[in-house]
């Protein structure tokens, strides 16, 4: 296992933008899902991305991670423009996401799910997985990966489910598995799309603890979430989207007071 | 947490299972043969034929399992890739209609050609969803068959060398079955003096009354079984590796696999080409064994049979693919005609020409005309049996006999490492 010194935040100034989105635009036919959205996420922070349903949050995630190619605008990650690159290329750079509806690999065991994720696996080359001598290296690396996978499962306290098929897990456990799997890729930043949806309160508390643990190790988070308590209590910065654009950006306390935000989004609640 | 105590490796379990199924099949067919009053030669010949078809369907089902069972690539153009393999081999090794190169060059060339056609199909089809991918492969397989039938390819010239697919009358080439002559006859001439294995086998066979031609076919069938084992070993290795894990990831949820940084397009192309090459090889070993093929041997129904074999055995399981090939060949293909022969030999049944004539005597509790009718139209009814077996199987065991896709994709033992004590290792070194 790597030490925390490998995490990227240690060597760099906090406050620098790790992810910058500029004038992002995505339309589907006549519908403008993301309309000229610009925001940035500082290194080492937990940033919340909120907005009413249909505000364009998930589409923004899809554009950032390459699932969709934006119609206009740029996405810059760690000083490099990644606009329109393929999802695996972006994940290779260290920007990894989870999905609003957990996308576990249902007919693979939890352990297999977690083992799939690590980068640079020698055995992912076809000839190495078959050739007699080359396979030895694969097996050696595989032993390390298995150990690492068990540690991660223990960290998320789902190690007792290691041999279950992922499809049999509860909604909350799937969310944990997805986060565990994403971490196995050794990313520098995680985009979490509604990580608390369908997670019971005790599991939610656990998940948030994990997120804070990871933040201390230097990870950066951008989290889409509907639960205002989570956003207000756990995020350092909040970005509010409304009708495809960024409505406001700032600290939770300031966002809470922002008239436009209250009108667009929180109005019904207060 | 209970650790699994799988003491036996997967391949031992698989070997026992497949061996058992094979022995059971042999026992049934031997009994059939005895009932029919076949001699030793007839029974051995029967078992050889069952094994031959079991082996070729196992080879094809294994290759298809790599596409469909492991990667979720819905390839319904199996027959087309077989055709490419066989015809490429024919064009390379045929003396009259091709370059007249040695057979092994033809076999290697056939596999390469099938892989390249696979690449051709995979490149545009990669972006397509599974169902559209299926249509592309089916279309391609029919295009290949029609092209082989076309008169413009019947005879053509490349660099002064006259080649040709022969259109509907097909192409002739050195039979792949001929390779066994190298170990059976001196000078590799069939019917010549026995050599090597031949001098051992022929006298042995003669004492129990088995003819040399049956010995020859049996040796070739044994070679096919060796190929089945080789396919199994290679594909199991691929399955039990990080590459196999990526394939499973593609099958389960490609978007998720890509978002984890897996370059799924490359993996799909590689695996599709490999599977096509194996289908080409299986085609050469099967359809190429007689030394002549026509395009009519590569109808889409062949693809369907391979799918039946795979589904019966259980997609996602290599052992299941082999068992599926055996069940298909024995129970659905070779078995019914035997039953017919037994019925005809032992019962005095007429063969009514219509179902009406067959059903009417039932009123008098006379079932024989119905039996006779069923037996008489067995070639058609066989397809109904295949359908019924599939329906029953889907109700009773939707994952096939050995399915459940439970072969774990990892190159090593997955037990929790025991060297770490307590949980402090987790807190200190648990970061990714």
From TrEMBL, chain A:
Residues 19-268 form the ABC transporter domain. It comes from the Archaea. Keywords: Amino-acid transport, ATP-binding, Nucleotide-binding, Transport. GO terms for biological process: amino acid transport. InterPro entries: AAA+_ATPase, ABC_AA/LPS_Transport, ABC_transporter-like_ATP-bd, ABC_transporter-like_CS, BCA_ABC_TP_C, P-loop_NTPase. GO terms for molecular function: ATP binding. PANTHER family: CONSERVED COMPONENT OF ABC TRANSPORTER FOR NATURAL AMINO ACIDS (PTHR45772:SF9), CONSERVED COMPONENT OF ABC TRANSPORTER FOR NATURAL AMINO ACIDS-RELATED (PTHR45772). Belongs to the ABC transporter superfamily. Probable component of a branched-chain amino-acid transport system. This is Probable branched-chain amino acid transport ATP-binding protein LivG. It comes from Saliphagus infecundisoli. The lineage of its organism: Archaea, Methanobacteriati, Methanobacteriota, Stenosarchaea group, Halobacteria.
Automatic annotation (TrEMBL), chain B:
It is found in: Cell membrane. This is Branched-chain amino acid ABC transporter permease. Keywords: Cell membrane, Membrane, Transmembrane, Transmembrane helix. It is a multi-pass membrane protein. The keyword Kinase does not apply. GO terms for cellular component: plasma membrane. Pfam families: BPD_transp_2. The chain crosses the membrane at residues 15-38, 50-68, 74-92, 99-123, 217-235, 271-289, 301-333. The keyword Membrane applies.
